[in-house]
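Hey,
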Amino acid sequence: MGFLYKLERKFGKYAIPNLPLIIIITYAVGYMLHLLSKGMITDMISLNPYAILHGQVWRLITWIFIPPSEFGFFTVIMLYFYYSISKTLESTWGTFYFNLYFFMGIFFTALGAFAMYGYCEFFNPEFVSGFNAYEIIHTGEECTWIQGGSWFYCHAANMYSTYYMNMAIFLAFAATYPETTVLLMFIIPVKMKVLGIFDALYMIYLAFELSIGETPFGLFVIGASLLNFLVFFALTRKGMRKSPQMRKRQKEFKRKMREIRYERDDRRIAKHKCAICGRTSEDYPNMEFRFCSKCEGNYEFCEDHLFTHKHFKRSDMSNSTKNDKDVMGGTTPNGDKL
């Protein structure tokens, strides 16, 4: 955690605020592109390691625009739910740590894609070439360069989306707020730790179930998301020097202190102040204040004390100062010792 703490102090100012909203916007753009292109755009922006190594480096970033699921009525509810829990995590962890978790998810997913590519090329090249040959016969054409250049990796890349990253975000929320109760299907109250355990078991099941031929594709796709969760919480387990609740309280405290500071900065300094009662022109804007020409020194008085005050003399001020020093030195004004 010491490393992450130093990292936050050095790069925390570059963290993207309100990242959950930006994520939802990318999903919305992805849905729009998917509908307008009738799904053809997916092949051009997917996380295809074969195409990336052949010059299409934009795929390292553009794959996050691929929506986590097909668009429908429940998609809106799902996106709102993930936005809510992501916003809560951002508020609890802080902007830097949520940014770190999300971008670590992107990194580990890309790492899983290249690990899958290496596995296929070194341990299962016959299946890859056989799959490509079958698709060429079935479609009557080779996979174009813009689609990725390989039918096998083109189909495999379509399985890399933000769906499993969202599942990892849900898992992180369940680990952070295990005792929180939600309404399953809007009816059944369930604690988040129960849903988190189910989510983890389901991801593990899919990791072993999902495959393309003899390639354990799920181990690379879903394993990357689980690895992101495990690495992040392993790094922050001892380190979150502050618990999520403490970080939230400190954030609220800093917000209130900023409000107080802004109010203090906005407070105007009074131009006139009575030397007798202390009233100011800010407190009593309709009251007149004047300087007394008979007082020795710059003394200003309100209209109630301008003519009734006792005039200040420099000798009175010096005697008052001398008396204060005598008292502090242990003598009375008459010279007697205390």
